[in-house]
């Protein structure tokens, strides 16, 4: 009985920390916490309505993901999307993204493929930035699930918040909108699963293309 109670307590603790993380993450992605702004633990506890422990755990996770920076005795600051952040993100994503597509091409089920094509059609037809971001995140969640790889699922989850912020800037541009529609078309063609190695190479080229354009866009903004 004692062991069962301890297990329930631990499950609740993890659940609260996850809920708190998602809440703070949404505030960041919705722009309610601005890049470069400072905040402290007490302010965030009052804002999100969670206790000190789940807030502290959520902040530690966001710090580990590079979304926020811990300032000793000065609280936290939401990291800016600058050239250094772009380099850090794509250093990992240029390898992980293509690998997810390859493993998905090897293992995807017909149900997953149908779902992927449905959301790709939604993304292709969409016109609103928030909808593009929401659907693109769902598409990569489907792909990651299809890989059947816990490691790739974990890495994708770790990168997803920063990726959402970076691509949110990119999709506001004409280049980003065109890139988005090209990727929708890639999954709508349906033949990407026939040759997993080719699918990996095509995604690698697409991510490289996005990286170059995003880097140029951020560099121009910093000048």
UniProtKB/TrEMBL annotation:
HTH gntR-type domain boundaries: 14-81
Entry keyword annotation includes Aminoacyl-tRNA synthetase: no
Keywords: DNA-binding, Transcription, Transcription regulation
One example GO MF annotation: DNA binding
SUPFAM superfamilies associated with the record: GntR ligand-binding domain-like (SSF48008), Winged helix' DNA-binding domain (SSF46785)
InterPro entries the UniProt entry points to: TF_FadR/GntR_C (IPR008920), Tscrpt_reg_HTH_GntR (IPR000524), WH-like_DNA-bd_sf (IPR036388), WH_DNA-bd_sf (IPR036390)
PANTHER family: TRANSCRIPTIONAL REGULATOR, GNTR FAMILY (PTHR43537), UXU OPERON TRANSCRIPTIONAL REGULATOR (PTHR43537:SF5)
Name of the protein in its database record: HTH gntR-type domain-containing protein
Organism: Maritimibacter alkaliphilus HTCC2654
